[in-house]
Structures are given as C-alpha cells and as structure tokens.
C-alpha cells in the first residue's frame, strides 16, 4: 500500500520554483507548491466569479507591476532615506534637475500669474464643481439635505446641486457609481457661464483605486504625437470619450457658442485631460478648456507639453500636493534617491529611527548631522538620476498655488525651526506658472498629503478673491472671461 506521502503529487509551478526553500525536504516543497497552485486557482476562480473582466485583468496587471518594482525595495531603508531627503529641502525648481530634464533655460524661473477678478470668480465656480461631484464625501454642513435617503444617487446629486448652486434641470446626465476605467461624472449646461461642463470625480471607490494603480506606461498617439500614457487613466478617458461623443455632438449643436469646460480633481483631473485631448483631436473646431485640479499625471513629456495641450489644459497644483508627481517613472526615481542616500551617507536606520527616540532628539537633527558636509554631493547625485521609464507629468500650463506666506526657515544641526502651520497667513496667496517637468519626481514635504484635499483647492481660490474685494459666494456668477 502506498503511503500518504507517496500519494501526494508533487506539482511545482514554474513561477513558484524560486520561492522554494532548499532546507525544506523535497516532499514538503511539493506540498507547499501544490497548496500554492490550489490557492492561486481558487482565488482566480473566485475573482472571475465576483469581479468584472476589466477589474480581474487589471488586478493581474497591478500585481505584476508591483512584483517587479518592489523586488528590490526595502521599507526600512525607504523610511530612513525619506527623512534624509526631506531635510535636504530640495526646491521644486532645482535648476540642475530641470536642465537634466531638458527644460529650456528661459523656463527655469517661475512666472508669476496675475488673475483678474472675473477670472478668479469663474475659476472659483469651476472649483466648486470638482468638489460637489464627490457628493456626500465632499459635503459641508450647509450642504445637508432633507427628505432624501442618505447615500443614494439622488442624495449625492442634491449635495452637488446645493454646493454648486446648480438647478436640477441644468443637469443633462449624472452617474454616481464608478467601475474600473469608469469614474463618476456629471454633465450640465450652465447658461450663467455660457458653458457645457463635464465634471469627473476623483478617487473615491475601490474601482477608482484599481484605475489609479494600473500605472504601467502605454504607447499612445495623440495629436499625431507619439508618447506614453498612464494605462488606467488613458483607458478611463477613452471609455468616457466613446460613451459621451454623440451626446456632446448633440449639446454642441444646441449651444454652438458655449465653451466646453472639462474639470476634475485627482483621478478626475487626469481622466479629464485625456478626455479633453480626445475630444479636441476629433473636433478641432470646438472651444474646449480643461481645468485639472491636482491631476493624476497622465502623459509623458512629449504629449503633456505639446502646443495643443498648452492651449487647452490648465493644471492647478496646490503647494506641495504629491499626487501630480506620482507615476511609475517617479517611483523609480525615488528608488534611485534611496540608493544615492545609501551610497553617499549610509542609512543608519537604528541611529535615526530608534536611538533618536531613546535620546529624545529630533530625528531630523540627527539626519542633518549624519549628512554633514555631504549635502551638496548628495543633492547633485540625486539630480542626475536616470530611470527606465520616463515620468508622467501634469499637462498643459502648470500653475503652482502657494497658500499665503511661504518663507522657509533655515534648518541647522542645532535644531529644526518649523513654520507654524496653525497661524493664518496675512499674505496674499501666490500663483506661479512652472515647468511641467518640475513634477516628475517625488519630493517629501510636510504638507504633501493635506495639500491634496479637494477643499484646500476651493479655499486657496477663495482666499484670493477675498483679497480682491467683496464677492457673494452663494450666488451663481454671470459670464466670466476665459481664464488665462
């Protein structure tokens, strides 16, 4: 009679052989491999049963991409290196870095933007749409609605109408649900603005997260220009274009003199850029303007900086917002930054992360002491990093919005002086047009996550208008001029 061990068929899938421990008896390896194959098959069958084909395929793409990128990624090294990079306080417009990225010397300096009162008011109203589309997640107390069941599509629409001062009859189409490659959106006709608006929601659902994470580069041709695009965002924009093209033709025929405004925040901004490009490519005579707030980076430089994008797209980025910097290329660059830190100053994780707690000493002070006189060498080395994949960057004209006074205080090994972020600034927010390429890498900053919150964008435009004069935010605005 065969033993129980002899009855177990040893099946070792090709992709599992590298994970077999030579110290485990061969029979155990066979059991582990068989169990792994069974689990993989079971999970795959469950995923196919409960997930759409798009989501199922997308999850495999995400897994493969992360497996490749995280193969040589050490979490402790990354945390420690991030602290070193943070205290270096590398400026957004580092001239050495921008020169290496091929930026024209004439564009190395930030260009101040002066907006008229009409432009700011129009921009403020557009900003409200990017927040209102979040529905209940973008709610403020004054947006609360009665006699509508909470968390329904009708509730979210009512929140949107209240927040944007839009009439229900102005809404042409609204979808609150989202699927992979298909974020929530709304179309409305605003006679007060002489505009047809397409508003795309940012990341809110798990399906939106899947779209975000399908970040592998895809070869595309837009305006006759070859370049790369974030795969998930491109497919989402193309799907929205196919679904809306005929409807937009109808609306344009009804309102031929209206400007078509496409806007969104985060994922919605990235998808909006792709949708705008596909619409303009198909209908070159249409007056299309895209306002992308904190846009997820969609295109490589060739397309992002082309003439058509510069004329159509305005990417608005609040201070140190990290999202417009995120792409596969920028992640590879960040891994290169970690390597530079390891090679030049070392990680010293225990001294930096553990001993600093025991000594009750600021870890940033310790990081500066460790860097010592190697700061210039480290910054120079970081600026010269090259990556396998090019970074995706914000498209069109890129406006960085600095909220009020932004005067960095010096950091010394004797102690760290931080700006008191709780004090309201008395200075007028400053807006600058900056090179698109400046957002091709991740620079750790204190406010990089807070700056991405949708309401922070509404707030900074609000602050600018307050400085100009009285403005009733609760009334829809009359015809404004085209921004910039």
TrEMBL record:
Pfam family, one: Lipase_3
Main location: membrane
Bilayer topology: Multi-pass membrane protein
Catalytic activity: a 1,2-diacyl-sn-glycerol + H2O = a 2-acylglycerol + a fatty acid + H(+)
Cellular component GO terms held in the UniProt record: plasma membrane
Cofactor: Ca(2+)
Domain Fungal lipase-type: 198-328
Top-level taxon: Eukaryota
Protein name: sn-1-specific diacylglycerol lipase
Catalytic activity, EC: 3.1.1.116
Keywords: Calcium, Cell membrane, Hydrolase, Lipid degradation, Lipid metabolism, Membrane, Metal-binding, Phosphoprotein, Transmembrane, Transmembrane helix
InterPro entries recorded: AB_hydrolase_fold, DAG_Lipase-Related, Fungal_lipase-type
PANTHER family, A to Z: DIACYLGLYCEROL LIPASE HOMOLOG-RELATED, DIACYLGLYCEROL LIPASE-ALPHA
EC top class named in words: hydrolase
The species this protein was found in: Entamoeba nuttalli (strain P19) (Amoeba)
Molecular function terms from GO: lipase activity; metal ion binding
Localization (cell): Cell membrane
A biological process term (GO) from this entry: arachidonate metabolic process
């Amino acid at each position: 009679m065969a033993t129980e061990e002899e009855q177990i068929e040893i099946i070792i899938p090709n992709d599992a052989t590298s994970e077999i421990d030579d110290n485990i008896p061969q029979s155990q390896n066979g059991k582990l491999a068989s169990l792994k194959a069974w689990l993989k098959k079971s999970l795959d069958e469950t995923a196919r049963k409960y997930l759409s084909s798009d989501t199922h395929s997308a999850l495999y793409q995400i897994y493969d991409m992360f497996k490749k990128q995280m193969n040589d990624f050490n979490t402790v090294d990354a945390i420690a290196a991030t602290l070193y990079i943070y205290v270096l306080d590398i400026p957004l417009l580092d001239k050495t870095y921008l020169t290496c990225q091929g930026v024209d010397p004439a564009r190395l300096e930030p260009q101040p933007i002066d907006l008229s009162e009409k432009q700011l008011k129009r921009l403020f109203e557009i900003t409200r749409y990017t927040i209102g589309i979040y529905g209940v997640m973008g709610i403020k107390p004054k947006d609360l609605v009665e006699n509508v069941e909470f968390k329904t599509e009708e509730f979210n629409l009512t929140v949107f109408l209240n927040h944007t001062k839009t009439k229900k009859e102005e809404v042409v189409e609204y979808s609150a649900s989202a699927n992979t490659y298909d974020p929530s959106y709304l179309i409305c006709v605003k006679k007060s603005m002489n505009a047809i608006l397409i508003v795309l929601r940012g990341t809110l659902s798990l399906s939106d997260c899947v779209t975000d994470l399908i970040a592998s580069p895809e070869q595309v041709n837009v305006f006759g220009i070859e370049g790369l695009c974030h795969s998930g965002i491109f497919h989402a924009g193309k799907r929205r274009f196919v679904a809306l093209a005929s409807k937009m033709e109808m609306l344009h025929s009804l309102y031929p003199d209206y400007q078509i405004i496409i806007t969104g925040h985060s994922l919605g901004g990235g998808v909006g850029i792709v949708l705008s490009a596909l619409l303009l490519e198909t209908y070159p005579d249409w007056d299309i303007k895209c306002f992308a707030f904190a846009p997820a980076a969609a295109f490589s430089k060739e397309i992002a900086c082309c003439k058509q994008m510069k004329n159509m797209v305005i990417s608005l980025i609040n201070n140190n917002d990290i999202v417009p910097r995120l792409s596969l290329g920028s992640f590879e660059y960040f891994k290169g930054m970690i390597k530079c830190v390891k090679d030049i100053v070392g990680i010293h994780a225990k001294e930096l992360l553990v001993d600093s707690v025991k000594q009750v000493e600021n870890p940033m002070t310790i990081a500066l002491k460790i860097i010592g006189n190697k700061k210039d060498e480290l910054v120079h080395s970081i600026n010269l990093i090259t990556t396998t994949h090019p970074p995706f960057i914000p498209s069109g004209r890129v406006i960085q919005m600095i909220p009020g006074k932004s005067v960095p205080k010096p950091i010394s090994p004797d102690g760290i002086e931080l700006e008191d972020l709780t004090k309201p600034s008395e200075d007028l927010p400053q807006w600058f047009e900056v090179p698109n390429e400046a957002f091709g890498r991740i620079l750790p900053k204190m406010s990089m996550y807070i700056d991405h919150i949708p309401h922070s964008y509404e707030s900074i435009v609000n602050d600018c208008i307050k400085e100009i004069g009285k403005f009733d935010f609760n009334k829809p605005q009359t015809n404004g001029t085209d921004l910039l």
